[in-house]
Amino acid sequence: MGSKTLSPVFVDAAHDTPLGTVWAAVSDYGLVAVEIQFSAGAMIQSIQRHGYRVVGFDSARLSAILSQLKEYLEGRRQAFGIPIDWSGFTPFQVQALQATYAIPYGQTRTYAELARQIGRPRAARAVGRAEATNPMPLVIPCHRVLGTDGKLHGYGGGNGLETKAWLLAMEGAGREIARRE
Questions:
Q1: Could you say which of 3.30.450.30, 1.10.10.10, 3.40.50.150, 3.40.47.10 is the CATH number of the domain covering 91-180?
Q2: Per-residue model confidence as pLDDT tens digits over 93-145
Q3: Are 176 and 167 contacting, i.e. CB atoms less than 8 angstroms apart?
Q4: 142 noted as active-site residue
């Protein structure tokens, strides 16, 4: 996390998605957080842990973002047109998460593959840590990242690995995982 003061953020939620309630938070610079199945209080605490200050709820600011998230979860969207606020990340986290953001729908990569892609071939564990602290699952699709052994490992969104497996199955990435095993 960077040491500079981060922008204030607004939050809102999309209800009735296949994974339950999905929350999003935005600053003036873009998306800062997405959470699955959180309460309003838990979402605010999560945002504050990342160094942001929640200034209120704003359906108008978040309408397009929440619509895209809902479309994705319903299988009607494969990519997002959402600006991301990268100000709360270290340069390494930005590299790792931008590489994750570029993983195409229905495909997977391993931590080691991402480490090589960003020019840090010995940094697979550091990439894993960056993925573990990703505050925007779904949009920065860390569910598409597998362990170096090609298998499912931790996931912080929703119900953990169950949610990760559901997302990969929804995207048709099961074939990708089976091919790696």
A1: 1.10.10.10
A2: 999 999 999 999 999 999 999 999 999 999 999 999 999 999 999 999 999 99
A3: no
A4: yes
Options 24, 114, 142, 173, the catalytic residue: 142
C-alpha distances (whole Å) from 70 to each of 1, 23, 82, 99, 104 are 28, 11, 13, 23, 18
> pTM score > 0.85 for this model?
yes
Task: Extract the tokens encoding 164.
Answer: 């990760």
Are β-strands 53-57 and 8-17 bridged in parallel, bridged antiparallel, or unpaired? parallel
* The residue type at 73: L
Rounded Cα distance, 130 and 128, in Å: 5
